[in-house]
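Sequence in, structure out. Go.
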Amino acid sequence: MKLDPPHISKKLDLNLSSKSKPHKHNTISTAQFSRLPLEKTKPPTLVSLCLGVIGKHFEDIIADLGEIAINFPADIKMAMAAIARRRKLLNDDIIYSLAESSWEILDISGSDVSDFGLAKVAEICKFLRAVDISRCSKITAIGVSELVRHCHSLETLRCGGCPRSDHTARRCLGILKPKLNDVEGESWEELDTTEIGDGAQSLRWLIWPKIDNDSLECLNTECPRIKVNPKPSPFGFRGIEVPREAFSNMALDDPVVKDIDPITWAVCGFTPRATSSSVSSPCDLPMAEKFRLAFVERDTRLAPKRAKNARQHQRRAKREWVMTSTEAKAIDLASKMSKSLHSWN
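Output:
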């Protein structure tokens, strides 16, 4: 009978023991490994955490926002504007207080910004490349005209999204189409910006989800330089690389708030304007209303104590007046004498 060498038999014993009785620590490590995420998520930065806290209580600083944000960097101001927009708080005053000349994108979609606010921001932010005014019912062709007049680097414009905004977009076709100083050219593509006298000189991408056929045909015929509603493609749009800002499936200001916790704009103090409820629960009230109700409750609770203190103060004042005034002393003595006379009788 031939025996195996010792080292071979040792290996066989180890293999058999490992099959029959698996090691506990190996099993645990495998299970733990299977639960590990594929990627490690980075912890939020201190700036992101601070912006999250500010965003949750944004309505409490609106009144002093101009003084608070005056020394903030441009990226912080843009993040604050993005949070305000998501919380449905963005209006003319807020966007004007936060506007910075170095901004290249402006997302005011679905906000209460009007023509006045858009014109003021366009005067400050002259280097805007991409602007989203979709679902802005207070913006008309006047505001878009001011935007085009001040921002000569505008390449991407988002509009439409609601009936009022669609109407504004139709009225802006004449504003967006460039007008020629030299009409002898054969093609729009051969023109330089110096030959374009008016209109959106640099506009290349128009995102208008529900554009009507007449408006689309008008743009394709009279201004083929402006591409309408490009689709994501690895080959670009007709051989031209489409910028990220021209894709309607992502918000313009998403990169600005990507490191901020989404709970910042989902705080319980905010209720969407579209929804209406007959009775509001305490967690649905804004922070300012909670403070007001707490003050009213405290005022009601302390009212009896204040009334008691007022009566005590009145009695104390009367005693002091009696002790210091000669007239009061005379009246008091006369009262006592009259009482004594009545008692004698």
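Check: The chain has two domains: 46-271, 287-340. The mean pLDDT is 78.
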